[in-house]
Automatic annotation (TrEMBL):
<feature type="transmembrane region" description="Helical">
    <location>
        <begin position="112"/>
        <end position="133"/>
    </location>
</feature>
<keyword id="KW-0472">Membrane</keyword>
<keyword id="KW-1133">Transmembrane helix</keyword>
<feature type="transmembrane region" description="Helical">
    <location>
        <begin position="6"/>
        <end position="22"/>
    </location>
</feature>
<dbReference type="InterPro" id="IPR008756">
    <property type="entry name" value="Peptidase_M56"/>
</dbReference>
<dbReference type="InterPro" id="IPR052173">
    <property type="entry name" value="Beta-lactam_resp_regulator"/>
</dbReference>
<feature type="transmembrane region" description="Helical">
    <location>
        <begin position="34"/>
        <end position="55"/>
    </location>
</feature>
<keyword id="KW-0812">Transmembrane</keyword>
<protein>
    <recommendedName>
        <fullName>Peptidase M56 domain-containing protein</fullName>
    </recommendedName>
</protein>
<dbReference type="Pfam" id="PF05569">
    <property type="entry name" value="Peptidase_M56"/>
</dbReference>
<feature type="domain" description="Peptidase M56">
    <location>
        <begin position="187"/>
        <end position="280"/>
    </location>
</feature>
<feature type="transmembrane region" description="Helical">
    <location>
        <begin position="290"/>
        <end position="308"/>
    </location>
</feature>
Length: 579
């Protein structure tokens, strides 16, 4: 949504700037009408226009730079993940704090998004109601006043003493002036020009855009420019027919002091800017200058086309489309082709069409990338190493394991009854603390998962305290199956059955001062794929049982090597690779 607003507003501003400072000063009124309307349509559609494949897409390149994958910290199941014991202590401390921080950020982000959406729809409802009331007001004018069919238009006789104005094919005039033949032919012809040239449709179009994009003040400027240009067009028609510019100008000056009212969506004879109209009547533009201005507007449109277009249709829809877009579904479908049939959370690298997956990824906007499963391996260096690793199959069989949901647990009836009778218990249902009496509103079969922990041990004259965490079936499915999958570890198996594993979930480390810092070195993912491809497990020292976990933060990371079908294992430090 943000990218769409930036692009469309920038285009609207540049188009209007060219009109205001250059085109509006020239007597090319028909071209200016086409220019203003086209600028509105083009600016709003521009972010959705696909770049032709024969031309390198500037937008696609910028997406690769600006919309890099935002690191997402996965939720790790310590029991399921086979992590070397020397890493678990660091992991537990690090992930606990990072996870809580991420949860707070996500909750804050969601709440702000909801507020912004609520504000937008409130404004949409307010401006739509205003527009509807204007249409109703115009309809009441038609219903409450007599009409005369003139063939190409309908004459509406108003009870009020107003100057003539038009809306669609209706010409509104004062009944008293019409009966006394007090309406000058020039004024009548001016208003009929509005009807013949269908100026009301331009105004209605802008009003609809103002309802949808009510927060954009540029649309107010566009409406004023379009209405003033309508007056220029009608004046031009009158001068061609009557060929008496001085007389028509005197008529305008006599009418400018008249007190009258007109409808916001109508085309009125006196548009409050008579001075500009008088100036433009005598304006003569040089043909060569007009040619250059028209070419300049074309080149401006081409410049914006090549810089602001999307790399695919719908790339910047963001706010206007549902969360599950075609791009997200396509990415997940391509990724799902690599999952093992026996192990649905294990991705087999050799099955993936990496080129197609990368292309779809770069066509996603930032919001869409937050909706897909974790696969942040598409920057140039990492992607190159990933391709090289994939080509090593079947010598190196690479798998990527995603976080595996815990098995469902059935609560026994006697246990559930015991919980209801127990005191000093904290109750959490779907990760929210609830009064313990809330448990009486549920049946034991309502829950898919439970966890009981002792929060305070038994002491003298004090009973132990417990916390019970329960998860309903809907929440369990939403938490583990409807949210994007996150990577837990990356593994490689070699011809001698040795296996190398990188615990990818361990991306952060707890520092001595209690702060959480990124643990990953430079070129982390690319270095993983490089080492998994080039490791020779026969050359590693398994006899020396001394730990080799002497990290240089930001320069090294660990790879666990399992030998002899995992009967022997050891953690080794590997350096980050400069490519």
């Amino acid at each position: 949504m943000i990218l769409f607003l930036i692009k469309s507003t920038l285009a609207l501003g540049l188009f209007y700037g060219m009109y205001h400072f250059l085109l509006s000063r020239e007597s090319i009124f028909k071209f200016n009408r086409f220019y203003l309307l086209t600028a509105l349509v083009f600016s709003i559609a521009l972010p959705f226009i696909p770049m032709p494949q024969v031309i390198p897409s500037v937008q696609e390149k910028s997406n690769q730079i600006w919309n890099q994958w935002e690191l997402k910290q996965p939720i790790v199941d310590l029991e399921e993940a086979k992590v070397p014991t020397e890493l678990k202590e660091v992991q537990e401390k690090s992930l606990a704090q990072v996870g809580s921080q991420e949860k707070e950020v996500n909750q804050s982000k969601i709440s702000w998004v909801q507020v912004i959406i609520a504000i937008y729809f409130f404004g949409l409802m307010l401006f739509s109601t205003r527009f509807l009331l204007q249409l109703i007001g115009m309809r009441k004018l038609l219903e409450n006043n007599s009409q005369i069919d003139k063939g190409s238009y309908r004459l509406v006789l108003l009870k009020e003493d107003l100057l003539p104005f038009t809306f669609l094919n209706y010409l509104f005039v004062s009944r008293s002036q019409h009966q006394a033949s007090g309406i000058e032919p020039e004024i009548l012809e001016h208003e009929l020009a509005h009807i013949r040239q269908k100026h009301s449709w331009d105004i209605l179009f802008v009003e609809v855009l103002k309802c949808i994009f009510w927060f954009n003040p540029l649309l107010i400027l566009y409406k004023k420019a379009i209405q003033l240009n309508h007056e220029f067009l009608a004046d031009e028609h009158v001068l061609r027919k009557f060929e008496n510019r001085v007389s028509y100008q005197y008529l305008l000056l006599n009418k400018v002091s008249d007190i009258f009212g007109y409808h916001a969506m109508s085309s009125a004879f006196n548009f409050r800017i008579t001075k500009r109209r008088l100036i433009m009547m005598g304006k003569v533009s040089h043909p060569m200058r007009l040619t250059f201005l028209k070419l300049g507007s074309f080149f401006l449109a081409m410049l914006l086309f090549f810089t602001l277009t999307s790399s695919r249709v719908g790339n910047d829809l963001g706010f206007f489309i549902s969360e599950e877009t075609d791009g997200v579904e396509k990415f997940e479908k391509l990724l799902s082709e690599g999952f093992s049939e026996e192990k649905p959370f294990v991705l087999e690298l050799q099955k993936l069409n990496l080129e197609a997956l990368r292309q779809v990824y770069f066509n996603l906007n930032e919001e869409e990338r937050n909706q897909i499963s974790h696969f942040p391996f598409f920057d140039e260096v990492t992607y190159e190493q990933l391709l090289l690793l994939q080509k090593e199959y079947p010598r190196v069989v690479t798998t990527i394991t995603y976080s595996i949901p815990p098995d469902k647990k059935e609560i026994k009836e006697e246990v559930f009854d015991l919980w209801k009778k127990t005191k000093n218990v904290e109750l959490f249902i779907d990760e929210k603390e609830r009064p313990f009496e809330t448990l009486n509103q549920y049946e034991r079969t309502d829950f898919a998962f439970f966890e009981v922990r002792e929060t305070s041990p038994k002491k003298f004259l004090k009973k132990p305290e417990y916390s019970i965490k329960l998860m309903t079936h809907d929440f369990y499915h939403q938490k583990y199956f409807e949210t994007p999958r996150t990577i837990q570890r990356i593994s490689a198996r070699y011809p001698n059955s040795d296996q190398a594993e990188v615990f990818y979930a361990l991306r952060y480390i707890m520092m001595e001062n209690g702060k959480v810092s990124e643990f990953i070195p430079k070129n982390f993912e690319a270095s993983i794929f490089h080492h998994l491809r080039t490791i020779d497990t026969k050359e590693l020292d398994f006899d020396n049982r001394r730990s080799t976990m002497n990290y240089v933060t930001g320069e090294q990371f660990s790879i666990s090597i399992f030998k002899d079908n995992k009967n022997q294992s050891k953690v080794f430090s590997f350096p980050s690779v400069t490519f």
